[in-house]
Design brief:
This protein is α/β, with parallel strands linked by helices. About 30% of the residues lie in helices and about 20% in strands. It contains 23 helices and 29 strands. The strands form seven sheets. Strands 5-4-16-15-14-6-7 form a seven-stranded mixed β-sheet, with helices on both faces. The chain is globular, with a radius of gyration of 24 Å. GO terms for molecular function: 4 iron, 4 sulfur cluster binding; metal ion binding; molybdopterin cofactor binding; oxidoreductase activity. This is 4Fe-4S Mo/W bis-MGD-type domain-containing protein. InterPro entries: Asp_de-COase-like_dom_sf, MoPterin_dinucl-bd_dom, Mopterin_OxRdtase, Mopterin_OxRdtase_4Fe-4S_dom, Nitr_red_NasA, Prok_molybdopt-oxidoreductase.
Length: about 700
């Protein structure tokens, strides 16, 4: 058995330091525990992060596979990579945009950077994105609008200093247990308010639970701002000195009583939220806000609440809770929505710097950042002829997943993953990748802290690291893009050098520094600096906007929800996390495809009912678990089950391209077939009563 090796947990984005130990015989991780010396978590660790690292339930991919006569069969790496590069070179010669690339927040910084270099530089395609857009892009857009740069201004250091905590559209008790412990510890001497339509585990721990209707978060947030203004709670000194646009944001604020009725809340709920903002407040939000056609506007409205009440500074601020382990790192370095360092995609200086570093003509770089994952899949099988997915599972994870999966039959699909996923079933070539405990590199958590990821076991025979696979494919398309087998540290140095002088400057980071101190927050422009609270300029503020002032959002009125309930579909479907689930559940459910449990209020169904959950896109067999925590008129499904996204809606936020996962119209229909496996249909709506 190996000695204990320090690393960073790759389950969620808290970024806990772990110690791991390799198995006595063969490959694999024998045991994992929290690292008491790591500055992020000081030894705390959640059980799911430990167990999914040491003993994931998924089926490992152990050899390259190619499709022959309709079946996936084992092959050699040379054959597999040869087929991939031949298909990509042929497509690229016709049109680089005929190749789509979809990455992930589960890659290391080095692999994410390399995939962006491969997609934007070696291939030159606009059809490149990552599944992080499916969870975080609305928060990203709102941060850019307000501060001129992405990512929270605050950090974990502010949690114990806060006097009140408002958790909006998030369930950190389940999604981020270690962070939630810090929040509840701090709230013992203050207050915790949770805003969520469902009484989640986080809501059960709260002093106040506010339950808006699904999709009504923007209405509620603007009602709170209206009440803050009406009751004279605006921090006028801060607003006048450090912000712009407050008057415009107030021009069309709603009448509070009418907004409360529209949001499905009581006036006392609005008053409780306004009262909380009188104290030093951290306002956290998650997927319940972001995953909406109103996501950017709602995230912007939450930032507005912080700005208007002066809740910016130590112990306060707007704090988006990131879903995937390295969503932040993907945003900083992967070139999916901006160049490394979060530089604007159309910035000619940034483009020239990237082209020079990559050794390509600037004209080779695409003209825009692309349409997002949902928009990309609209072109799969049409203008997109080749699709390369890396550590992601769009056949189960995209909204309206039946339609997304059907498109995979019409494209040359390259699936690169550590586990056998639903997407692998459609692949023409499968490239088996290393998983946690087998890879070297770095990751970036939700408070902007970069830390090391280390291998504790040798690679299994037949498996290669993400970085090595990406480099090999990229070199096959455009010779010389990478060294033959690039070292993670050399890629990290190339990546951080490109961020010098940018809003997300990581040029002062090195493996040696990270090994020494454990974790460093960006901006880190030199070997000593690690910024805790961003935009601080002495006692004042300097934001990354043109005027160097923070910007209020436009305060645009609500648009209609994309799919309200109707007589034919009288219930609202919402989705959320289970405590034992991870992303599309590949690591946690393994090969289990038993029917999902649909949680419903006793007023809408009976416990144990066997039903079909039906939307306009399809149906899924399910078993009802009645739960008064779910309000009447709402049903709840886990995001981790492969059937769930057969039902969800592909409508997206017009600013962020993030899908509207959290709200669509549905109905429960009794079934008598006795099925005990997933039953889904993409054509369920065709024979149903129309509205």
């Amino acid at each position: 058995m190996t000695g204990w090796v320090p690393t960073t947990c790759m389950r969620c984005a808290v970024g806990c330091g772990h110690l791991q130990r390799g198995a006595d015989l063969g490959n694999g991780v024998d045991s994992v525990r929290g690292n008491a010396d790591h500055p992020t978590n000081r030894g705390l660790a959640c059980q799911r992060g430990v167990s999914e690292t040491a003993d994931p339930d998924g089926t490992f991919l152990t050899r390259p596979l190619v499709r022959r006569d309709g079946e996936l069969v084992p092959t050699t790496w040379d054959v597999a990579v040869g087929k991939v590069t031949e298909a990509m070179r042929t497509a690229c010669e016709r049109d680089p945009d005929s190749i789509g690339v979809l990455g992930s927040g589960q890659q290391t910084n080095e692999a994410a950077y390399a995939l962006g270099k491969a997609a934007r530089g070696a291939i030159g395609t606009r059809h490149y994105d990552a599944n992080t857009t499916l969870c975080m892009s609305s928060a990203v857009a709102a941060y850019y609008d307000a501060f001129g740069s992405d990512a929270p201004p605050c950090s974990y250091e502010d949690i114990p200093a806060a006097e009140s905590h408002v958790v909006w559209g998030a369930n950190p008790a389940v999604a981020h247990p270690v962070l939630f412990r810090w929040v509840t510890d701090s709230a013992r001497d203050g207050e915790l308010i949770v805003v969520d339509p469902v009484e989640t585990d986080s809501a059960e721990a709260a002093d106040v639970h506010v339950q808006p209707d699904p999709g009504a978060d923007l209405t509620l947030a603007r009602a709170v701002l209206a009440h803050v203004v009406e009751t004279g709670r605006v921090d006028e000194a801060f607003v006048d000195a450090h912000t712009e646009g407050f008057a415009a944001a107030c021009e069309d604020l709603p009448e509070v009583e009418a907004a409360c009725e529209a949001a499905g809340v009581e006036r006392s709920d609005v008053e409780a939220l306004a009262d909380a903002l009188d104290a030093k407040t951290l306002l956290y939000w998650g997927m319940g806000v972001n995953q909406s056609t109103r996501g950017t506007a709602t995230a912007g409205a939450l930032i507005d609440l912080c700005l208007a009440t002066g809740n910016l500074g130590e112990g306060t601020g707007p704090f988006s809770l990131t879903g995937q382990a390295n969503s932040m790192g993907t945003r900083v370095c992967s070139s999916k929505g901006g160049w490394p360092g979060m530089c604007d995609y159309d910035d000619p200086t940034a483009r020239a710097r990237v082209a020079e570093a990559w050794g390509v003509d600037v004209e080779r770089l695409p003209d825009d950042s692309g349409p997002g994952p949902v928009g990309m899949f609209a072109d799969v099988g049409e203008s997109i002829e080749v699709l390369w997915t890396v550590a992601t599972n769009p056949a189960a994870g995209l909204p309206d997943a039946d339609d997304a999966a059907a498109k995979l039959d019409d494209v040359f699909l390259v699936a690169q993953d550590a586990f056998h996923t639903e997407t692998v079933e459609y692949a023409d070539v499968v490239l088996p990748a290393a998983t946690w405990g087998e890879s070297e590199g770095t990751t970036t958590n939700m408070e902007r802290a970069v830390s090391r990821v280390r291998a504790v076991t040798d690679l299994p025979a037949g498996v290669r690291t993400d970085l090595d696979i990406i480099a090999t494919v990229a070199n096959g398309v455009h010779s010389g893009t990478f060294d033959r087998h690039p070292e993670p540290e050399a890629v990290f140095e190339e990546m951080t050098a490109l961020t010098a002088g940018t809003p997300a400057d990581c040029s002062g980071l090195s493996y040696e520094r990270l090994d020494d101190v454990g974790a460093v927050r960006w901006p880190a422009p030199d070997a000593e600096t690690s910024v805790a609270y961003r935009y601080r300029d002495g006692d004042g503020w300097t934001f990354e906007t043109v005027s160097e002032n923070a910007q209020f959002s436009t305060g645009a009125p609500d648009d209609d929800l994309p799919e309200p309930t109707s007589d034919a579909y009288p219930l609202t479907l919402t989705t959320g996390r289970e405590s034992d689930g991870y992303n599309t559940g590949v690591r946690s459910r393994g090969g289990d495809t038993a029917v999902p449990t649909v949680r419903a209020n006793p007023a809408d169904a009976s416990d144990g009912d066997r039903v079909s959950v039906e939307t306009r896109r399809g149906s899924a067999a399910a078993v009802v678990a009645t739960d008064p925590a779910v309000p009447a008129g709402v049903v709840w499904l886990s995001i981790h089950h492969p059937a769930t996204n057969r039902l969800t809606l592909p409508a997206v936020d017009p600013r962020s391209a993030e899908p509207n996962y959290k709200q669509c119209a549905t109905r429960l229909v009794p079934r008598t077939d006795g099925a005990d496996a997933v039953e889904t249909s993409g054509a369920g709506a065709a024979s149903e009563v129309s509205d």
